[in-house]
Structures are given as C-alpha cells and as structure tokens.
Specification:
Strand content: over 45%
Shape: globular
Mean pLDDT: 96
Number of helices: 0
Number of strands: 11
Structural class: mainly beta
Low-confidence stretches: none
Order of helices and strands: EEEEEEEEEEE
Length: 118
C-alpha cells in the first residue's frame, strides 16, 4: 500500500523558514518522480515543485523559485521541501504527491498546514 506522510508544517513569521518532509512507503521510492502541491484557503490546488526519480531534475513554479528547494533522500525514502523567505501568500496546506507513468499525480499525502503570519 502506497503511503505518503507529510510533516514539518507550522506557524512562521514572514521571512522565516520551514522544512517539510514526506515519508514514503509501499513502493520503490527512487523510481518515481515526486512533487509538492499546495492549496491556499479558498483556492484551488497549485503545483509548487517536482523532482525526478533517478535523474533528480527539479522544477518550480515561478512564485517560489529562488526561495524553495525540493530534494530527496532515496536511502531514507523521504522527500523534502526547504522553504525560505516565506511570505503570507505561501500560507496553504502542502501535499506531497507521487507521479504516475503519464506524469499525473496518482497518490497524495494527507497534507501539512503552513501558516505565514506575524
């Protein structure tokens, strides 16, 4: 059974940092591309970042480029999102997701809340 469990969210002041983690199990983690998707209050899902399986190629939505860094530790079956210089507009529930063969996200975690506020 595929399981994705996020952690690391919380309340942080503008300009602060957080590191999200996603513990994966039930599949060969290193073989799959992974991503982070967020949902701000009252808004739809927004893709944030992705990392390839094997090649480790990364990509980001423009709004987080230069501030967020996605990474993975295949030995620990864990995906990370380092978030720096956080802004109030980064407030959202952040979901970890596993990509399928066609690139769609087919498995999701339960989400972790990130709130950026003074």
């Amino acid at each position: 059974e595929v399981q994705l469990v996020e952690s690391g969210g919380g309340l942080v002041q503008p300009g602060g940092s957080l590191r999200l983690s996603c513990a994966a199990s039930g599949f060969t983690f290193s073989s799959y591309a992974m991503g982070w998707v967020r949902q701000a209050p009252g808004k739809g899902l927004e893709w944030c970042s992705a990392i390839g399986g094997g090649d480790g190629v990364t990509s980001y939505v423009d709004s987080v480029k230069g501030r967020f860094t996605i990474s993975r530790d295949d030995a620990k079956n864990t995906l990370y999102l380092q978030m720096n210089s956080l802004k109030p507009e980064d407030t959202a529930v952040y979901y970890c997701a596993r990509a399928g063969a066609e690139g769609e996200y087919e498995y999701w975690g339960q989400g972790t809340q990130v709130t950026v506020s003074s």
